[in-house]
Amino acid sequence: MIELEIFIGLLVCAIVVASFLLREKVRADRRLRDAIDELPAGIAFYDKHDRLYLWNKPYESISGDCRKLLRRGIQFRDMLKEDLRGGFYAEAQGREEAWLEDRMELRAKGEGSRVQDLGNGRWLRAQDRRTPEGGTVSICVDITDVRRSEDSFKLMFDNNPVPMWLWEGSATLRVLDLNRAALDHLGYTREDIPNLTVFDLLSDEERPALNAMISSGMVRPYDGDRMWRPRRKDGELRFAVPYIHILPRDGKVTFVGAIVDVTDRVLAEKALRNNADELSKALERAEAASRAKSEFLATMSHELRTPLNAIIGFSDILRGEIFGPMGSERYKEYAQSIHGSGAHLLGVINDILDISRMDSGEIELDLEPVELASVIGECVVAIEPMAQKDSIAIQCDIEPAFLMADRRRLRQMLFNLLSNAVKFTSHRGQVRIAAGQNRDGFAITFSDTGIGMAVESIPKALERFGQIDSSLARKYEGVGLGLPLTKQFAELHGASLSIESTHGAGTTASIVFPLRSVLTQGQARAC
């Protein structure tokens, strides 16, 4: 009786322990299933007879027509057949049996992974792994987004106008792809790609750096901070700046690179360096010629001005009959002509000398407060005989002002503009001089009713030796230096010269000084 009670007690304990263990197993199975369901990839477990016994929800949602057959104990082959009948695998269409046998052979080996086109715009990556017990774990991942990204990259890669290439990050540096621009640039065809390495595409001088980089295991991107020498298929070496970055791809390190060809620039720089000595010598010769020109002009101006001053002075004495009458009036006319021609020639020589000094930077302004009205008055007095000869009226409307300027150069500018206005104004015409402040600064304006000129002729008039009428029989004298000199003197003062003209209706020339050059009477006295 006692033995029976002991037996019954042990049996109850066994039942309690078994119930506890069973509940724990159920909980463990539930936790395992919950964990598997939370995985982002579809996963299924098959026994050694390739029968399904566990799968998660993502695996069910990824499955094709075989979804309706999902149950414990179904064969993997039967599931594939159902999907093939529904055309689930686009790559198998037309060769379903052969595709099925290939797929089962790979599964039996438990080798690698394969990408499957589902034909509806979706792509799967399927992987089979053997377990120690002889079963199989199938993992399916929807890679549609990844595939679209790869397609976008491929489209950008192939159509990029810049030569680009992909290569492995392994020690072989095997080339994976070249875009069309790279094929054209390097002279290769697409059939050459499988046999190429980076070493084939670069010069031998790059090999040590590449080998050192590989042996060190430290491969760094390039951002255009060095120069490469790409080698074309025909052996020609080019110059290029590489841009290289790491591109994670299929779980492997891959490099994507772009090369910007700078061969023309490098060769041009080399040519410039090679010609540097010749350019330097040419510059020295030009400077020597400029010095010789300046010295020649200075010498000639001295040699010409000395006798000209004598001619002008003596002709002035003759026309004034200082030492007594010359007799015939014609002698007096001749003396007047000699004096005028000498003064004109002296003015031309002075203008040429000023141009030479301007080019060599020898002209410096002697700035001082200058009363504008007095300088304009001097110019009017000097030009009045010429104006009276053709009955040309000169009108003045001058706003009282002092300018910070070089008095001699200011007088030269104003006289040039006034003499041009009188010279090109016909009989009984008018010349008006106005000076005053406007929105642009302080303007000194010379307006005439003369012959004017076409708008397109104004730039030529501002050129050195520019002549609107360049014939030897032209009506108006002058060598074409007055306006160019006036423009340059104005710019030295920080002012500007502008000309407006209409053919047959007159010309308006203006010098506009900045307001900082205008002084009050008190400021002028304080200077």
Number of domains: 4
Total of DSSP H or I helical runs spanning 4+ residues: 16
Number of strands: 18
- Rg estimate, integer Å: 50 Å
**What is the third-level CATH name, the topology of the largest domain?**
Heat Shock Protein 90
Structural class: alpha+beta
> CATH top level of the largest domain?
Alpha Beta
Oligomer: single chain
If classified by CATH, what would the architecture of the largest domain be?
A: 2-Layer Sandwich
Please render the helix and strand layout as text.
Blueprint: H1 2-37, E1 42-46, E2 52-55, H2 57-62, H3 76-85, H4 96-109, E3 113-117, E4 123-130, E5 136-142, H5 144-159, E6 164-168, E7 175-178, H6 180-186, H7 198-201, H8 207-216, E8 222-223, E9 240-249, E10 252-261, H9 263-274, H10 276-320, H11 329-360, E11 367-371, H12 372-389, E12 393-398, E13 402-406, H13 407-423, E14 430-438, E15 441-448, H14 458-461, H15 482-492, E16 496-502, E17 506-513, E18 518-519, H16 521-526
Parallel strand pairs: 12-14
Antiparallel strand pairs: 1-2, 1-5, 3-4, 4-5, 6-7, 6-10, 8-9, 9-10, 11-13, 13-18, 14-15, 15-17, 16-17
Helix pairs in contact: 10-11, 12-13, 13-15
